[in-house]
Design brief:
It comes from Sphingobium amiense. InterPro entries: Metalloprtase-TldD/E_C, Metalloprtase-TldD/E_cen_dom, Metalloprtase-TldD/E_N, PmbA, TldD/PmbA_N, TldD/PmbA_sf. Belongs to the peptidase U62 family. GO terms for molecular function: metallopeptidase activity. This protein is an alpha+beta fold and 448 residues long. It contains nine helices and 19 strands. Strand 2 and strand 3 form a beta hairpin. Helix 3 runs parallel beside helix 4.
């Protein structure tokens, strides 16, 4: 793994070589990920794995023609060949009137903000093994747990460096630590599985391994003996660990490329109230220790906290430079990219602000409904907003969680679902996308 300074220099050198070879403009991005993973099963060490991969990508522009190429070999001779190939590819590419680097006057010029993304502590594999064993042992100790899919612990580091031919250069790094456990409860055909995990930037913020294991065991046992559910229209309450998927569908409909292609269920809804006024959704790339925090976007633009939904109103699209040009708008600092290909658009740390009601209050008036803890499949149409997914969780009867349920399908349309969505007051920051417990009325439920 190159140091941040070396990675930044390598990206700058690649851009400089592309310009000398005839490119009108160019950018280069370096990315590296290194991780150590330890897994155990039934109280014994199962695997210790160390992986490290790095990639550098080059994008060049010849007039309105562009091409990109990437390599995992950092040898200067290999990178020289990379430049020649990319230039040749760009000369044969079709013209794209929207292609180009980000506007020069929008580039981040200030010092990169300190986001506290890197931890100096790197646990030894032996310590990670003990943490994994503790998590699995705790899960297996829960009465009703009968088997284990294992437990694990990991640590990792990632680094990114970006350089452009019109004056931007920057780099940042981040670390990660995680613990998980996955177990089964019951016997034979009635077996049920569930899991628990936690992932953080700094080891000191990681949940206790025993607590993670107990959560996994209790979740698996709670799913035993599921009952059948009669089909009908009813309220559905989403557990926070899966309610974030609804925000994922919202974001997919807000990205600039989808709007430019006119392939989003949110078309023509800019500035309209698509949620109740009690719903506000924030994207915060500058959250200290955030799992997706970053000091600049994939094109070198500054980033800032932004309300995606402000008191129910859709505030704007998420733009990279190309889609912004196509729509006659400005980029928003949401560009994201890998080693090859043009940038796309994405969010960072997203959360839905909590409401006023407790989770108990949300279900207090529900005569018959569902509390969903797992979603299966991806039956969502991003163009129409039609939504249909397999689900599992618990029946709600007379305002209280009752029997476990499985093999059910919940369906609706995202526009209708967003209009009736109500957040509870139990927001906790544990993931890249965080939501409180969510209630959505009027969904169609098909029993197994």
């Amino acid at each position: 793994m190159l140091s941040l300074e070396e990675a930044q220099s390598r990206a700058q050198d690649l851009v400089g070589a592309a310009r000398k070879a005839g490119a009108d403009a160019a950018d280069a991005i370096y990315a590296c990920n290194a991780s150590t993973n330890v897994s155990v099963r039934l109280g014994a060490l199962e695997d210790v794995e160390r992986s490290e991969g790095e990639e550098i990508g080059l994008r060049v522009f010849i007039g309105q023609r562009s091409a990109s190429i990437s390599a995992s070999d950092m040898n200067p001779a290999t990178l020289g060949t990379l430049v020649d190939r990319c230039i040749a590819m760009a000369r044969e590419a079709p013209e794209d009137p929207y292609a180009g680097l980000a506007p020069e006057d929008r580039l981040m010029r200030r010092r990169a903000p300190a986001l506290d993304l890197t931890d100096t502590e790197e646990p030894e594999p032996a310590a990670m093994r003990e943490r994994a064993l503790e998590a699995e042992d705790a899960a297996r100790s829960v009465p009703g747990v009968t088997n284990s899919e294992g437990g694990g612990a990991s640590t990792g580091r990632s680094q990114v460096a970006l350089a452009t031919s019109h004056g931007f250069v920057g780099a940042y790094a981040g670390t990660s630590h995680s613990t998980w456990a996955s177990v089964l409860a019951g016997e034979g055909a009635g077996m049920q599985r569930d899991h628990a995990s936690h992932n953080v930037r700094h080891l000191e913020d990681l949940d206790d391994a025993e607590a993670i294991g107990i959560r996994a065991g209790q979740r698996a046992v709670a799913r035993l003996n599921p009952v059948k559910v009669e089909s009908g229209v009813m309220p559905v309450i989403f557990d926070p660990r899966i309610g974030s998927s609804l925000i994922g569908h919202l974001v997919s409909g807000m990205v600039g490329p989808a709007i430019a292609r006119r392939s989003s269920f949110l078309l023509d809804m800019l500035g309209e109230a698509i949620f109740d006024s009690g719903v506000t959704i924030i994207d915060d790339p500058l959250l200290p220790r955030g799992l997706r925090s970053r000091p600049f976007d994939g094109e070198g633009l500054p980033v800032e906290q932004r309300a995606l939904i402000d008191r129910g109103v859709l505030t704007g699209w998420l733009m990279d430079s190309a889609s912004a040009r196509q729509l006659g708008l400005e980029p928003t600092g949401h560009a994201s990219r890998g080693g090859s290909g043009a940038p796309g658009a994405s969010v960072t740390n997203v959360h839905m602000e909590p409401g006023d009601a407790s989770p108990g209050d949300l279900m207090a008036d529900v005569k018959r409904g569902l509390y969903v803890t797992e979603l299966i499949g991806m039956g969502v149409n991003g163009v129409t907003g039609d939504y249909s997914r397999g689900a599992a969780g618990f029946l709600i009867e007379n305002g209280a969680v009752a029997h476990a349920v499985s093999e059910i399908t919940i369906a609706g349309n995202l526009r209708d679902m967003f209009r009736t969505l109500v957040p509870a007051n139990d927001l906790h920051f544990r993931y890249a996308i965080n939501v409180p417990t969510i209630r959505v009325d009027g969904m169609t439920v098909a029993g197994g």
